Amino acid sequence: MRSSILAFVAGVWLLQQQAVLPDPAWGWGLPLLATAYWLPRHRLPGVVRHGLLLGMLFGAGFLFAAAAAGQRMQDVLPLAWEGVDIVLSGVVASLPVKTEHGQRFEFDVEQVITPGAQVPRHIQLNTYTTAFNGKPLPDAPRVHAGERWRFTVRLRRPHANANPHVFDLEAWFLERNLGALGSVRDSPDNQRLRVFVARPGYAVEAVREAIALRLDCVLAGEPYAGVLKALVIGDQSAIPPAQWALYQRTGITHLISISGLHVTMLSGLAFALVYWLWRRSVRLTLRLPARRAAVLAGALTALLYVLLAGFAVPAQRTLYMLLVVAVALWSGRVIAPTRVLLWALLIVVLLDPWAVLSAGFWLSFGAVAAMLFATTARVGKLHWLRAWLATQWAVTLALAPVLLLLFGQLSLVSPLANAFAIPLVSFGVTPLALAGSVPGMDWLLYAAHWLMAGCVWVLDWLAHLPLALWQQPEPGGAAVVLALLGALWLLLPRGFPARWVGALLILPALLTPPPQPQPGALWVTVLDVGQGLAVLVRTAHHALLFDTGPRYTAESDSGSRVIVPYLRGEGVARLDGLIVSHDDNDHSGGALSVLREVPAGWLASSLPATHPVLAAGVRSLRCVAGQHWQWDGVNFAVLHPTQASYDDVRLKDNNRGCVLKMDGAGGSVLLSADIEARDEAELLASVPDKLPATLLVAPHHGSRTSSTPDFIAAVHPDVTVFTVGYRNRFGHPRGDIVARYARLGSQLLRSDSHGAVEAHFVPDHAPSVAAWRQTRQRYWQAGVR
């Protein structure tokens, strides 16, 4: 039975790696396998029959996931209705989350009022109480969970940036069944139609919102209010990025969500309390045995808490495990712990085939599997302290390869941090916060906050220990598999021969260096940061970052979301140089986040002297035409701006943008920032011989202010990359500009439709240019291009 469940789950996982969904005709393979299994089963060897069964279940998982995916992909906003005002009505289906400019919430569409419009059944909307310039919008609707509204909305398909080593937000949209994203428009049609729609799911969200509002009121201004909200209702949106960084550095992020430990603790508490009380009533015991009553209480408590948590995967896993145990206890059966885990695994995948795409799925089930592997089938009974230490060691060792694969880092103080924080958060902070969410129990919330503050003080001390965090490039798949086998080998019982082999199997994941350019080679990655620019340039022994993309919100930017994860995944621990071409947000917005995480040797820019990036403690200089240097056989030259540009107060920031040319034996690259026609003419007059390039990042994202015919003819790029945001408000790149490059025969790539672009220029080889959405294509991406 165990291998059968694993085969089914493996089939589901394989489907989620496909570039396109399979033809439904493949479904006929299952009856053929079933026939091969059942008809001659009395003649076939047991191993063959078992193999046929596993193959049939593997195929069943694959086709089950394919059918679910096909149905979900049909419920996506049609291209024709992107960016069009649509009037519709429906129900606020989730806890509204506060954003910098308003609210964000999920919405169940009940009726599309605009004639002919086609809208998915489940969408995500934003309302805006302030404009992006800070101006209040007093007429903006303020919504609450469970309300029925009529809105005028403008929608787009679920699109996100696509880069290696970066979180796949489009997959997350798919898992959440969000067929469109959009905003509520200012319109007289916007109207609340009903205060509350009485359905169970909406009632749960309304309760979550009521608790959230209470916590916001009682703990207003307290630094760890967001943590308590996460522990009570699973809403992590109010936790500041700096706190998240601390929890990641100490390896306790699993505690700052409603994890399995919290669910188990509350369920066990309810079980013990009801069992103790029930046994004291003869009448109740005669009607229902105390054990069964306690089982019901424990299961119901777990269900309610998981619903309160927003039904996250780690909490689901624990709920289903507890329900399997509850059924076994109710029926008086004994069930092996591994079967409990596998039944929970099967239920999660059946209800949500996309759960296998989330890191939480693998970390959650992997942690429990590691604990079971380390503590079951052992001779003798371990002292509780030794058992605790054994489980901590098992979880740390078994999850280390997965953490390195997913995040490129591993907290070395995690065992100490968890040994301290798990009992404090699970048995102190969480129960107090839950009890304090009841009206009239404010003092319990303050007590929970005080305990959390003490916990953070210790975590901060641990985080600042030397070597608290191990960071490395993302290991390859084969190295991760070897490391997992090595971890299991090391966790075998004492006395098992050659356990040291396990340590050897782990070494490749830790020591295998990432690919690097050879001497004379030039590697360039144009990252997908939306409407902005960020380019990583590498030679054999040097790395340069040109521009840092936009700042998205007050607490989020492309530096932290895209650039730093990419640098870690590629093994770039230090930048030799950073160039910020000019002051515009879409080029400089992520610079501070990058410099906080990755040291840089120098900073060159055209930024004004008062810009905060210049106060980041990095040696800085102006970029001026004529600057040049050589790294590992590759020549670098700054072509623009001239010194006179800084003295001309009439010029815009775009006209002072740094332009960088790189020439290697295998090809050349021109990074042109946001220069405009006057600057292109200046380059044509001053350095026409330096303009030809194999790859050009189009000036100013393909706007009509740039890319004059003479400039394009002088550069004559083989490849042109337009760095643009999906459906950006500027209309970049302009169609006539794209046509100019196309007439020249240039290969055209757009970051919004191709994702990150990686170009390798190697001596004596043809240039290699690859787009991330093509090299790592998944079936759900077809819905956003």
Structure explained in plain terms:
- The chain is α+β, with helices and mostly antiparallel strands and 785 residues long.
- The protein folds into five domains: 72 residues; 120 residues, OB fold (Dihydrolipoamide Acetyltransferase, E2P) (Beta Barrel); 99 residues; 34 residues, no CATH class; 256 residues, Ribonuclease Z/Hydroxyacylglutathione hydrolase-like (Metallo-beta-lactamase, Chain A, 4-Layer Sandwich).
- It is 45% helix and 15% strand.
- The strands form five sheets. It has an eight-stranded mixed beta sheet with strand order 17-16-15-12-11-10-25-26.
- Strand 22, helix 24 and strand 23 form a beta-alpha-beta unit.
- Helix 5 runs antiparallel to helix 6 and helix 8 packs antiparallel against helix 10.
- The mean pLDDT is 90.
Would you kindly provide a brief summary of this structure?
With 785 residues, this protein is of the alpha+beta class. It is a multi-pass membrane protein.
CATH level 1 name of the largest domain:
Alpha Beta
Broad structural category = alpha+beta
What Rg, in angstroms, do the CA atoms define? 29 Å
What is the CATH architecture descriptor of the largest domain?
4-Layer Sandwich
Total beta-strand segments: 26
CATH fold assignment of the largest domain: Metallo-beta-lactamase, Chain A
Helix content: 40-55%
Low-confidence stretches: none
Total domain units:
5
Q: Which outline best applies?
A: globular
Total helix count? 27
Residue-averaged pLDDT, rounded?
A: 90
Trace the largest sheet across and list its strands: 17-16-15-12-11-10-25-26
* Quaternary: single chain
Largest sheet: 8 strands, mixed
Our estimate of the beta-strand percent is 15-25%
CATH superfamily of the largest domain: Ribonuclease Z/Hydroxyacylglutathione hydrolase-like
Report how far the terminal alpha carbons are from each other. 42 Å
Transmembrane segments: 51-69, 255-278, 290-312, 319-336, 342-375, 387-410, 416-436, 443-463, 475-492
Main location: membrane
Protein name: DNA internalization-related competence protein ComEC/Rec2
Keywords: Cell membrane, Membrane, Transmembrane, Transmembrane helix
